[in-house]
Amino acid sequence: MSKTVVVLGAGVGGLTAATELRKTLPAQDRIVLIDRGFDGTLGLSLLWVLRGWRSTEQVAVRPSAAALPGVDRVTGQIERIDLDSRTIDCGPAGTIGYDALVIALGASLDLDRLTGLSAALEAGVAGQFYTADGAADLHNKVEALETGRVMVLVASTPFKCPAAPFEAAFLLADQLGEKFTSTQVRVDVFTPDPLPMPVAGPAVGNALVDMMAAKGIGFHGGTSATRVDPSTRSVEFADGSTETFDLLAVVPPHAPGAAVASTGLGPNGWIPVDAGTLATATAGVYAVGDSTALLLPNGKPLPKAAIFAEAQALVAAHQVARHLGYDAPDTRFTGKGACYVELGDGLAAKGEGEFLASPAPQVSLREPSAAYHHEKEQQERDWLARWNIRA
């Protein structure tokens, strides 16, 4: 009897899982990929949109049938995931049953969780760089700024791409050029974490702080925002302090989507998974990427990053096949990964290591070079070419 495997979400994790499942499962089995629009953006390129090096169209990901041979694409808003009946409610698109499920729905932006943030964005005194249109709009706001202070604010944790706010600060300073080097415009980073990328360890965090200081970028750790006031262009923090800005570049609060929360698999909405197999507490259900809560040996969560979603998706596909009784590799997620920190002027640093190492992640930050910038360019080309195949 043929089986049906459903993959939720057409980001890097979902696309990779669906493709690998098609390679692994018999031809008679059905692979269904559900997404609300199949019109996405390559996340690793968003900061290049912010810098003005890419247009929104250049970083679009629109996977066609030609890019996903043998995979049934269903366009629909996922309303509910019913683990008891093993069905997915897609609203007007109907209900789809499954024998095994891979959840790759990512993380959503929850603007209203920080008081005043939505109003600041609507008033034009703030911008965000976690969507393509948002990054392009923020680029234009920075371009128009002549004097004052750009505050890069991490509203809360966790958030996608642990290097993003610091990379944004470097690229904003690079865009400002002489306005920054002459101190007409300052750039300061505020984050609830004591150091950048805390899961990577204090050596990496301190190295990034030193790199920012060398550029003239201010770093303010341990600062938890409680309110944004667009009328006074200020941010209030949990310790009672207030900081002003002329332009706010914000990492918005992130949250699991309602469909993810509907599973009931995690008390906070994020889905706990086995670190090696990506299995959830429900048999036959796996989760990958930003929607998960994967705890490392030191008790901290694995960072939310596309490079991990891709590796996890391959593992989940093989584990699904094994769950269904097929002879598939017993692959495991290793926690090995890397990310780039663009500094501007064609240079990038590279953080890489083993995040599942015990007792704590073993991560190093490689010195900035043009070679790492070119590596990221190649990664971008590879991913865009893989998913934007046209018939």
From TrEMBL:
<dbReference type="Pfam" id="PF07992">
    <property type="entry name" value="Pyr_redox_2"/>
</dbReference>
<dbReference type="InterPro" id="IPR052541">
    <property type="entry name" value="SQRD"/>
</dbReference>
<dbReference type="GO" id="GO:0070225">
    <property type="term" value="F:sulfide dehydrogenase activity"/>
</dbReference>
<protein>
    <submittedName>
        <fullName>Sulfide dehydrogenase [flavocytochrome c] flavoprotein chain</fullName>
        <ecNumber>1.8.2.3</ecNumber>
    </submittedName>
</protein>
<feature type="domain" description="FAD/NAD(P)-binding">
    <location>
        <begin position="178"/>
        <end position="312"/>
    </location>
</feature>
<keyword id="KW-0560">Oxidoreductase</keyword>
<dbReference type="InterPro" id="IPR036188">
    <property type="entry name" value="FAD/NAD-bd_sf"/>
</dbReference>
<dbReference type="InterPro" id="IPR023753">
    <property type="entry name" value="FAD/NAD-binding_dom"/>
</dbReference>
<feature type="domain" description="FAD/NAD(P)-binding">
    <location>
        <begin position="4"/>
        <end position="117"/>
    </location>
</feature>
